[in-house]
Design a protein that fits this description.
There is one protein chain. This protein is α+β, with helices and mostly antiparallel strands. The chain has one domain (24-107). Helices cover 37% and strands 16% of the residues. It contains 3 helices and 4 strands. It has helices at 2-19, 26-43, 85-88; strands at residues 53-55, 64-68, 94-98, 104-107. The protein has a 4-stranded mixed sheet. A hairpin with an 8-residue loop joins strand 1 and strand 2 (64-68). The protein is elongated, with a radius of gyration of 19 Å. The termini are far apart.
Length: 108
């Protein structure tokens, strides 16, 4: 009987993990919104095609940085000298990337 209950519990858990959509936690979504807004603010006075680091680190959470990258990504985006210094130095462990026109790419 215990084995049957364990098997049913595993099936339910597997179903939940595969079929129930997961929302990002509120913190990354809030930081994404702040990064996109920072991008829009900077883009008013500067061309962002060179992929600048916008928030290094993000003042709302120093474990994150906000960076501009190409879309689709180019090899140049992966070069350390083109990444935020806080991320390169490992004082920040997560990054949010937006396009030069401020579209969200990813949060890692």
């Amino acid at each position: 009987m215990c084995l049957l209950i364990a098997v049913i519990a595993i099936i339910i858990l597997a179903f939940y993990m595969v079929y129930v959509p997961h929302q990002p936690s509120q913190k990354p979504q809030r930081l994404i919104d702040l990064c996109v807004q920072a991008c829009k603010d900077v883009a008013k006075t500067r061309n962002l095609e060179d992929g600048p680091c916008l928030l290094d680190p993000m003042p709302q959470d120093p474990d994150w940085v906000c960076d501009v990258a190409h879309w689709p990504r180019q090899a140049i985006d992966n070069q350390p000298e083109n990444q935020c210094q806080s991320y390169r130095n490992q004082t920040s462990h997560h990054f949010i990337e937006v396009t030069p026109d401020c579209g969200f790419i990813r949060a890692v």
